Amino acid sequence: MPPLCENPDLKGVLPPDFVQGYASASYQIEGGHDTDGRLPSVWDITLRAQGLETGDEAVDSYHLWREDVRLLKEYGCNAYRFSVSWSRVRPLGGKDDPVNEKGIGYYNNLIDALLEANITPYITLFHWDLPQPLQDRYKGFRAANKAAIIEDFVSYAELLFERFGDRVKNWITLNEPFVYVILDAVVLNSECDFDNDPFTVAHNQILVHAHTVDLYRRKFQPTQGGRIGITLNIDWVVPIDESQEAKDAADLAVAMALGWVGGERVKGELSSILKKRYPQLPDFTPDEWKIVKGSSDFFGLNHYGTKWATGKIVERGQVSGFQFFGAGVEQVAEKDGVPIGRRGHNGHPYTVPWGFRQLLNHVHKQYAGPNGLGIIITENGFAIQDEADRTLEQIVDDKERQEYYDLYITELCQAHKEGIKMEGYLGWSLLDNLEWNQGYAPRFGVTHVDRANGFKRTPKDSTKVLKAIWQHTIKSDK
């Protein structure tokens, strides 16, 4: 029994309608890369060109979706977050390009099966797998003519609202736009202009999101009655000591992750911290601000770990692309030789539950609370170091992951109890899957997948722990 379940103060602390389940993404799980009319996304092309593991087969959810739904039901989930492959439903990507009805049919079948199992679908419109033809036509989200990507994306979103909106009531426009900025610069774009391209990609993503929300609210929400938002990612950053340099650096890193693509939508203004650091940060026109501000019905939040800011600002070339895009803030996971928490695979993440709680407080105070938005954790999970090298018996007995979930959900429950409106929690991830350019070595899934033996799925013990946690913390409506 996990420690949380032995805490009487947290019994029934969450409301009966609390959302709980798992998350996934199309390119990471589906496979079927050239099946039934699907054409390549930017990831198909890039990973092959770089000689890396690809999502050609992934974990074959294109064919094994019924098994995925069965597992979700077995795990006691009431929600499942998945993304639609733009390249599967409109393979050429553009607003005037044909619809692939076989791709539409795949998602119709999945949605209907989820609803039959009393599992609410949460659909992400874009989880990074841009159709390659749009990259070829106008450089995708780096488009100099922002109208091109806006029109094509909004048309794609409208297709999904029309075909699925009678049954799907929870929509996420973009997954982690800040991380996509980084991936576009350091993985997908071999000729990145680091002084300009990342700002164009971020700016265009925010506009795509805002125009999509505007369309949904005007044309679909009045009759379909759904909700729409976006999912942001942040690994929390705290000063390593009491120096002003460390405090300022931590504030800058947080502003980069949340203020860049979050503050605009909620507060209707650019981050003053970022404008000082990056004078080239593009602003919006008055008409654009009208649809950017307030363009979310909930606050979607992805979070994994926490690190310390030393106070040192480093330049590009001295650190990884990810750290450089953290505003150049040097971040470390050890202080006086002591790690900040249990180390996950290659240091992503570290188990730091107190950092999660600080992040929830910050999001509530700065963004969600003043605007009456509930917070949904749309990703949170742990990859055990070198889990891929363990025996199946050891993989199933995933104590480090169980510990992570127990500690983090305890903080979520305490936050809700103290007045922060927590609406849901979707763990990452349902399955061991492709972790983009990192391949299949990082294992975040609560389900082991044997890719060498028909993609056989085996539940890990963390599924039992999470099921017990929700039975203890969610108040029964009976």
UniProtKB/TrEMBL annotation:
It holds the Pfam family Glyco_hydro_1. The keyword Hydrolase applies. SUPFAM superfamilies: (Trans)glycosidases. Keywords: Glycosidase, Hydrolase. One of its GO terms (molecular function) is beta-glucosidase activity. Transmembrane segments: none annotated. InterPro entries: GH, Glyco_hydro_1. It comes from the Eukaryota. GO terms for biological process: carbohydrate metabolic process. Belongs to the glycosyl hydrolase 1 family. This is Beta-glucosidase. The lineage of its organism: Eukaryota, Fungi, Dikarya, Basidiomycota, Agaricomycotina.
